[in-house]
């Protein structure tokens, strides 16, 4: 599993923490990472056609590809 380093505004991070807390059960803490992973999975699912088109336009595999700014 990759371990990217990203910057998140404090206000958004506070929202992520609130969601993690709300999803946690006694004795079972939900992490920030889990909340962010779930959000990214939903985002990718919602943009599935764009992802498929991008992969079709590129002969090279995107495995291991890194985003750039």
Helix fraction by DSSP (H/I, runs of at least 4) = 55-70%
First and last CA, distance: 22 Å
Strands, count: 0
Query: Biggest sheet, open or closed, and with what strands and sense?
Result: none
- Which whole number gives the mean pLDDT? 86
Helical segment tally? Answer: 3
Silhouette: elongated
What Rg is obtained from the alpha carbons, in whole angstroms?
15 Å
**Which blocks of ≥5 consecutive residues have pLDDT under 50?**
none
Beta-strand portion reads under 5%
What is the string of SSEs from the N terminus onward?
HHH
Can you give a write-up of this model?
The chain has 69 residues and is mostly helical. The protein has helices spanning 10-23, 32-46, 48-57. Helix 1 (10-23) crosses helix 2 (32-46). 0% of the residues are buried.
Short synopsis of the structure:
With 69 residues, this protein is an all-alpha fold. It contains three helices and no strands. Helices cover 57% and strands 0% of the residues.
Which key features would you list for this structure?
mainly alpha
Layout of helices and strands:
Blueprint: H1 10-23, H2 32-46, H3 48-57
